[in-house]
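ARCHIVE CARD
Drawer: 12
Card no.: 0347
Subject: one protein chain, sequence and derived structure
Cross-reference: see card 0346
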Amino acid sequence: MALIHTSNEYQIPRGRVYFDPRNALDQLTGEEAFGNCPSFAISIETEKLEHFSSETGLREKDDSRVVQVNRTASLTCDNVSFDNLARYLSGQIETVSQTADAVSAVTMAVVPGRYYQLGRSDTNPAGHRNISALVVTNEAGTTTYDAGDDYAVDLVKGRLQILAGGDIVAGNIKVSYTKGVKSWKRIKTGAASELRGAIRVVSDNAGSTNRDYYMPLVTLKPAGELPVIAEEAEYVTMEFELEVLTPPNGSAIYLDDAPVAE
């Protein structure tokens, strides 16, 4: 009878990544999908303590033991969602609500050739959007300037440009306009620079056995660069580094055969 050889398992890894953030009480709050992740890789480093005998003239190693293991992982995601951007920027998501109102005769210091965000302040850095009925005058209010000749405006974004060569000179002007109802999402940085939670990778490999990874306690922090403007036509990716920890009543990593329908 010929020898029976074990078949090899070749793998082209694919899958979905989920992050389960922990709250202030260190409780898991529910898994959130990362979206498309071109790469998720685990790295393990071990440290060994080595012993050498001093009983003979030749110093020989007579014992070696692993005394430390460090598990980390790296994640690359190209799903540039608001949630993922908040994770990368270590920020919090909030909703900005603009109410309808008339803005009357606001004084602005301007320089020809420059751009200004209407309604900008320290408490409202985005300024006002969805504006209409814009009127621009001199500081005394006796001269009304002309759109297209003296200034240009983006009414949707609330952007005012003082045109070089127009009648507006460096100094103060007054602007009046109406702002409409508008709301948008904002990420504001200042949250913790690393997130604490759990990671689950649900495999859907190309032509091989699926196995799911679960790491109940990880810290997630941003790494690398986030392209904001790029010359090359490439998809934006965000990179994260994970430190895989061992929870008090569990293991650092669980690897399970994926369930199949019966």
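Annotation on reverse: Residues 49 and 161 are 68 Å apart (CA to CA). The chain has a mean pLDDT of 93.
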